[in-house]
């Protein structure tokens, strides 16, 4: 026995030696050839299997750049010409990333659609060669396999993926306003069926490995490993490679076929889809749905449908051609530029530019177990942050705890969490009515009612019990942080953290710093926000900060428009057709009429006539009648539990009638109404940048889109000014200024941009 | 290196006789000395780091003897019995083997994993049935595969603290029959039906019945916290330590071959025959089946398909069986005229990540228990490790032999080292003898004790992993002949 074990280990040793040798031979071989070094790829030969390892230097992720592309072609040519090699494995040695997608800079550098089309066609050619390879290629996928990465993987003969949480497959191109331009529109429908292919490409959502296996997107799964005699991640990649090699050999020896057994349902579906009439129905259905959801504002999804259709109905040559051409066209659209800008902005706002805080927050405390407080607690405990949730009464606390539990339990129902994980997460939450344990808190976030006196009282109470290093954050949408901090003994530790409701769904966190807030306090708040999974903008203190301040003038205009006789339904449809996810009247109901009034009153004190427009009397009357919006069951609409279609609240008619104002026909066309709303929003946003409330236009765009639902297809107010043209916006503002007055006066920075067409917020 | 250790023990022994020297001080002064080469020659004798593990002011606890009924594949001769029947047979076997008067026994503890709901305190039912005094209390413990280890250490605790002098510890598992429940919905309906008073109420309860209520609920085979089955975890563990299918099959073959030899040579002396009602008397384990590597290689992976490495042939099988040991305070045993088999010495329970290190208990427990006892790996003459899977054993051996693992996961400076295979599970293990979850611990202790007597040697190390990511190790010291 001992002997046999020794032999076993000896055998392994020799095996690994030969491997290393052959790897070495290969490398020196490449060196001697024309191209000296490869930076993104290297490969070695194990037996008769070429193992191609991707690892782009100086980057957290591998992207499908032109360099990687050409190096890959070189390697593949060597693989194809070598008589020693019978199959290949394609793997990334970068932890958590196979290939995260195409190199966006490569696309941005193109100035014409022809250039983009050409990039697409080159990739198509490569991948077609790969698809037709007589030597089987196995893609071994660990980590994100997105966009171009997925297109590469599905061109291989076989796919093996790790069942890791980080392993996600998907075609997110649509979210950037483009389409998969390297053959996915042609291959995916054949691989997973037309409906699933549409789902992948039109939603852009990431698919986890086990789901991908069920769909037929990958052929085998590999379980992530725990630690052995080296770290888990390293060993998992090694193991994936070992498994992939056995499958590559099996494929070369024809012991394994890449074909997959289809289930009965799948067989039936594919039979149904072989009938042209059924296919036509599907195209029609999908197109209808897309039109309804995008309101025609996003060209990419429709083009995707079109390209898929061309490929299936007219053959793949036509399909590939159409794919590359549409890809080129889409890459030049304003929508795509806006969406890519947002994507870059989002990446930037997921970094902590203030550096690591001196002390990492380990114990968090949240005051107030209302909708916001409980939401903040939920996004904290599910990331493993110990959180105290404090309220003043047991029923209020219980409601908050139940909200957290429900939020986690919904994930169990969706199978993204196990019930056990839910329970461990929920154990991170401590509900209580007193200040016990606050002496150990590293950060306190208060989410009590928006009342300055109450906030002052709470701040004083908390400061009496917390340690010196503890940060006090106030979750408020409009009360200036500086005013809250006036009663603080340590204003450098006071900061604003403005979350958006519902906290577990809304990505944005607006952090507000006063002149006295220390840099470390900011770093700590950003750090906590990032751990909570938020996209973060950091703005200067002032009435309404950034987000609320931009929303307020638009809301004022909403009331004015309603007063002028445009019904809530009509107004909603005008705003949603402009690209806002929620209609303006509905938004008031969702926010709460009382909250809207409270904010509007406060801000109009500070900003005077620039926030003029509609009469606050409307909100006051609504409140007096109890029409507080969704939370009270009535606002502009009537809300009933379980009823999906909401009806207009007919009791509003008398209020609207009593406050009716004449409309001015030359500024009241549908388009004018839309632009009256949007230009006021944009003007205020630019003013925020001018005044230094905003540090960068990027944060302005991210805040507007992720916090307020500014149309993503416009890319946020600053992208909008750049793409639409500052001059046109100023012209519109001047026109409305003439009709209504100073609330439409364009700010200086906007005027500067209009006067100088070379001036752009994004260069 | 070996020489050094032996010399250390010699010196320790010498120092031990010096009065008023603390144990710690001893260890510190011994180490530097032991490395000086001139003393090397003096260390020729076979002495250990320590001559005995007796501790001042703590009672010595001994195993007088222990027995088990033959371990059988589930679904064979024991399949119509209930768990307490097996436990009773083990108790009767122990009574017969040791001739201990029933009324001397102060307490009885049994371990079990899958509980038969009718006999949830299986220890008590078995004891009453075996004719123990109804004045002897009994309780049942559960700690997955180390349940009977827990039973034994409970006994050690009771005796060491002076609460008892004589305790019977044991374990039982019957996998031929497991409690399969009605679904929660069905149970709820049945309970509601119980409460319903009027016909109308009953009808209204019954009207809620749906066909899916009838789907049964099986006892969990997967880890509750991770929803992963143990075999799956074992396969991942083997992969994490890069253990090949061949190595695993080789190890399983070794286990079966050694068990077969032990069986043929009559070394498995802890087995007591069991006359099963309505069937022949069972006299030996029936899961020992040495096969060939070729045969084993034909099997398909059982958990990670199609490329995993854990198969039915290199895993322990579902087993029925029971075991029992008689544990006493040394002075009590001697007063009763017994010649005990072994001392039960230091023991250790450990626990770790139930996902990726589910079965690494022995790796964590071994260095700790050695340290606690003041022994080194070289002092151990008989290793008895529970073999859940070949892959699990080989992974543990590799982990114990890895400085990287010791430093990064166990917070230790260096590895403890891998036990030499020639001293390791020499009479077979759970892979071949079988593994009735609740009963394996007592088998391990008796195997260690019997091996020390048979093969000569002083210290045995028993170690086992258990579901939940837990583990156990204990030092068994041979009773001087």
UniProtKB/TrEMBL annotation, chain A:
Its main location: mitochondrion. The active site is at 510 (for hydroxyacyl-coenzyme a dehydrogenase activity). The record marks 498 as: Important for hydroxyacyl-coenzyme A dehydrogenase activity. Residues 544-639 form the 3-hydroxyacyl-CoA dehydrogenase C-terminal domain. Keywords: Acetylation, Fatty acid metabolism, Lipid metabolism, Lyase, Membrane, Methylation, Mitochondrion, Mitochondrion inner membrane, Multifunctional enzyme, NAD, Oxidoreductase, Phosphoprotein, Transferase, Transit peptide. One of its GO terms (biological process) is fatty acid beta-oxidation. Residues 364-541 form the 3-hydroxyacyl-CoA dehydrogenase NAD binding domain. One of its GO terms (cellular component) is mitochondrial fatty acid beta-oxidation multienzyme complex. Its EC number is 1.1.1.211, 4.2.1.17. It catalyses: (3S)-hydroxyhexadecanoyl-CoA + NAD(+) = 3-oxohexadecanoyl-CoA + NADH + H(+); (3S)-3-hydroxydodecanoyl-CoA + NAD(+) = 3-oxododecanoyl-CoA + NADH + H(+); (3S)-hydroxydecanoyl-CoA + NAD(+) = 3-oxodecanoyl-CoA + NADH + H(+); 1'-[1,2-di-(9Z,12Z-octadecadienoyl)-sn-glycero-3-phospho]-3'-[1-(9Z,12Z-octadecadienoyl)-sn-glycero-3-phospho]-glycerol + hexadecanoyl-CoA = 1'-[1,2-di-(9Z,12Z-octadecadienoyl)-sn-glycero-3-phospho]-3'-[1-(9Z,12Z-octadecadienoyl)-2-hexadecanoyl-sn-glycero-3-phospho]-glycerol + CoA. Pfam families: 3HCDH (PF00725), 3HCDH_N (PF02737), ECH_1 (PF00378). The record marks 151, 173 as: Important for long-chain enoyl-CoA hydratase activity. The keyword Mitochondrion applies. One of its GO terms (molecular function) is NAD+ binding. NCBIfam families: fa_ox_alpha_mit. In the central section; belongs to the 3-hydroxyacyl-CoA dehydrogenase family. Heterotetramer of 2 alpha/HADHA and 2 beta/HADHB subunits; forms the mitochondrial trifunctional enzyme. Also purified as higher order heterooligomers including a 4 alpha/HADHA and 4 beta/HADHB heterooligomer which physiological significance remains unclear. The mitochondrial trifunctional enzyme interacts with MTLN. This is Trifunctional enzyme subunit alpha, mitochondrial. It comes from Odocoileus virginianus. The gene is HADHA.
UniProtKB/TrEMBL annotation, chain B:
Residues 338-477 form the Thiolase C-terminal domain. Pathway: Lipid metabolism; fatty acid beta-oxidation. It is found in: Mitochondrion. Belongs to the thiolase-like superfamily. Thiolase family. It comes from Odocoileus virginianus (White-tailed deer). This is Trifunctional enzyme subunit beta, mitochondrial. The lineage of its organism: Eukaryota, Metazoa, Chordata, Craniata, Vertebrata. GO terms for molecular function: acetyl-CoA C-acyltransferase activity; acetyl-CoA C-myristoyltransferase activity. Keywords: Acyltransferase, Fatty acid metabolism, Lipid metabolism, Mitochondrion, Transferase, Transit peptide. GO terms for biological process: fatty acid beta-oxidation.
């Amino acid at each position: 026995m001992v002997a046999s074990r020794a032999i076993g280990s000896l055998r392994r040793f020799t095996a690994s030696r030969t491997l290393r040798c052959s790897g070495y031979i290969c490398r020196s071989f490449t060196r001697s050839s024309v191209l000296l070094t490869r930076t993104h790829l290297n490969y070695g030969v194990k037996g008769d299997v070429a193992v191609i390892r991707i690892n782009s230097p100086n980057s957290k992720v591998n992207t499908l750049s032109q360099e990687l592309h050409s190096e890959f072609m070189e390697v593949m040519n060597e693989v194809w010409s070598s008589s020693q090699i019978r199959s290949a494995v394609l793997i990334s040695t970068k932890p958590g990333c196979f290939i995260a997608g195409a190199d966006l800079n490569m696309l941005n550098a193109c100035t014409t659609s022809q250039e983009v089309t050409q990039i697409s066609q080159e990739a198509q050619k490569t991948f077609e060669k790969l698809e037709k390879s007589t030597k089987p290629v196995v893609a071994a996928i660990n980590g994100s396999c997105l966009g171009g990465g997925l297109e590469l993987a599905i061109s291989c003969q076989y796919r093996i993926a790790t069942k890791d949480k980080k392993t996600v497959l998907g075609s997110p191109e649509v979210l950037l306003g483009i389409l998969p331009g390297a053959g996915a529109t042609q291959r995916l429908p054949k691989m997973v069926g037309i409906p699933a292919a549409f789902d992948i490409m039109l939603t852009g959502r990431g698919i986890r490995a086990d789901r991908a296996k069920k769909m037929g997107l990958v052929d085998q799964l590999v379980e992530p490993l725990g630690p052995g005699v080296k770290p888990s991640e390293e060993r998992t990649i090694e193991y994936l490679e070992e498994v992939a090699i056995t499958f590559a050999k099996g494929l070369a020896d024809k012991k394994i076929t890449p074909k997959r057994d289809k289930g009965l349902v799948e067989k039936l579906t594919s039979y149904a889809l072989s009938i042209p009439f059924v296919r036509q129905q599907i195209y029609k259905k999908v197109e209808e749905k897309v039109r309804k959801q995008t309101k025609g504002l996003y060209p990419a999804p429709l083009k995707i449908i079109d390209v898929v259709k061309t490929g299936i109905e007219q053959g793949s040559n036509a399909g590939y051609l159409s794919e590359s051409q549409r890809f080129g066209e889409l890459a030049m659209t304003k929508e795509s530029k806006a969406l890519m800008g947002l994507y870059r902005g989002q990446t930037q706002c997921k970094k902590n530019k203030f550096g690591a805080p001196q002390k990492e927050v380990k114990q968090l405390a949240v005051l107030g177990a209302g909708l916001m407080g409980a939401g903040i607690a939920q996004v904290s405990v599910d990331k493993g942050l110990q959180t105290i949730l404090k309220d003043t009464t047991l029923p209020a606390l219980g409601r908050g705890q139940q909200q957290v539990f429900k939020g986690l339990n919904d994930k169990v129902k969706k199978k993204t969490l196990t019930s056990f994980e839910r329970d461990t997460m929920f154990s991170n939450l401590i509900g209580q009515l007193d200040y016990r344990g606050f002496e150990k808190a590293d950060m306190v976030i208060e989410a009590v009612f928006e009342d300055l006196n109450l906030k002052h009282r709470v701040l004083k109470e908390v400061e009496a019990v917390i340690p010196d290093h503890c940060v006090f954050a106030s979750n408020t949408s409009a009360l200036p942080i500086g005013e809250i901090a006036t009663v603080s003994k340590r204003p450098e530790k006071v900061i604003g953290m403005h979350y958006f409701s519902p906290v577990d769904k809304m990505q944005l966190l607006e952090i507000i710093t006063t002149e006295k807030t220390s840099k470390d306090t900011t770093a700590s708040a950003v750090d906590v926000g990032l751990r909570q999974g938020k996209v973060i903008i950091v703005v200067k203190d002032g009435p309404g900060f950034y987000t609320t301040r931009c929303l307020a003038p638009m809301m004022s205009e909403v009331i004015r428009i309603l007063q002028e006789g445009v019904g809530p339904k009509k107004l909603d449809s005008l705003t949603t057709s402009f690209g806002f996810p929620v209609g303006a009247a509905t938004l008031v109901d969702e926010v709460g009429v009382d909250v809207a009034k409270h904010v509007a009153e406060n801000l109009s004190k500070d900003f005077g006539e620039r926030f003029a427009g509609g009469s606050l009397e409307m909100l006051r009357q609504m409140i007096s009648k109890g029409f507080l919006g969704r939370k009270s069951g009535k606002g502009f609409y009537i809300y009933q539990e379980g009823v999906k279609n909401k009806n207009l609240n007919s009791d509003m008619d008398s209020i609207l009638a009593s406050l009716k104002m004449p409309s001015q026909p030359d500024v009241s066309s549908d388009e004018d109404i839309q632009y009256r709303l949007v230009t006021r929003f944009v003007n205020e946003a630019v003013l925020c940048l001018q005044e230094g409330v905003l540090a960068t236009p990027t944060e302005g765009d991210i805040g507007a889109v992720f916090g307020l639902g500014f149309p993503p297809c416009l890319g946020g107010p600053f992208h909008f000014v750049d793409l639409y043209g500052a001059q046109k916006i100023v012209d519109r503002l001047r026109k409305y200024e003439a009709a209504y007055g100073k609330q439409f006066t364009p700010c200086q920075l906007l005027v500067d941009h209009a006067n100088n067409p070379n001036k752009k917020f994004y260069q | 290196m070996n020489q050094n250790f032996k010399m250390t023990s010699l010196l320790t022994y010498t120092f031990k006789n010096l009065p008023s020297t603390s144990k710690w001080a001893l260890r510190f002064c011994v180490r530097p000395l032991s490395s000086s080469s001139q003393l090397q020659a003096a260390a020729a004798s076979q002495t250990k780091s320590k001559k005995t593990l007796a501790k001042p002011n703590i009672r010595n606890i001994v195993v007088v003897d222990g027995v088990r009924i033959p371990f059988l594949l589930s679904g064979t001769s024991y399949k119509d019995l209930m768990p307490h029947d097996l436990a009773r047979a083990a108790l009767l076997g122990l009574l017969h083997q040791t001739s201990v008067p029933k009324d001397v026994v102060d307490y009885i503890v049994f371990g079990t994993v899958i509980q038969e709901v009718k006999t949830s305190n299986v220890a008590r039912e078995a004891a009453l049935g075996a004719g123990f005094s109804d004045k002897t209390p009994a309780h049942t413990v559960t700690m997955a595969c180390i349940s009977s280890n827990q039973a034994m250490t409970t006994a050690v605790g009771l005796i060491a603290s002076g609460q008892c002098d004589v305790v019977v510890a044991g374990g039982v598992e019957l996998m031929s029959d497991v409690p399969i429940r009605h679904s929660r919905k069905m149970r709820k309906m049945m309970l509601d039906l119980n409460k319903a008073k009027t016909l109308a109420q009953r009808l209204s309860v019954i009207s809620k019945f749906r066909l899916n209520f009838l789907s049964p609920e099986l006892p969990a085979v997967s880890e509750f916290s991770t929803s992963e089955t143990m075999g799956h975890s074992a396969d991942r563990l083997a992969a994490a330590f890069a253990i090949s299918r061949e190595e695993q099959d080789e190890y399983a073959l070794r286990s079966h071959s050694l068990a077969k030899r032990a069986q043929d040579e009559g070394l498995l002396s802890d087995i007591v025959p069991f006359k099963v009602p309505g069937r022949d008397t069972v006299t030996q384990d029936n899961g020992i089946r040495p096969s060939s590597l070729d045969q084993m290689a034909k099997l398909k992976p059982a958990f990670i398909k199609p490329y995993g490495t854990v198969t039915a042939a290199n895993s322990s099988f579902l087993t029925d069986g029971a075991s029992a040991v008689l544990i006493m305070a040394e002075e009590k045993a001697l007063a009763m005229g017994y010649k005990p088999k072994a001392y039960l010495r230091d023991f250790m329970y450990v626990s770790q990540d139930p996902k990726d290190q589910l079965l690494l208990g022995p790796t964590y427990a071994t260095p700790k228990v050695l340290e606690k006892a003041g022994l080194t790996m070289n002092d151990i003459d008989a290793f008895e490790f529970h073999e859940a899977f070949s892959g699990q054993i080989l992974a543990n051996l590799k982990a114990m032999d890895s400085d990287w693992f010791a430093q990064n996961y166990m917070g230790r400076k260096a590895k403890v080292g891998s036990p030499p295979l020639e001293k390791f599970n020499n009479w077979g293990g759970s892979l071949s003898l079988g593994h009735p979850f609740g009963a394996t611990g007592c088998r391990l202790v008796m195997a260690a004790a019997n091996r020390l007597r048979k093969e000569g040697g002083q210290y045995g190390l028993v170690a086992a992993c258990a579901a939940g990511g837990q583990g156990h190790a204990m030092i068994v010291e041979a009773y001087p002949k």
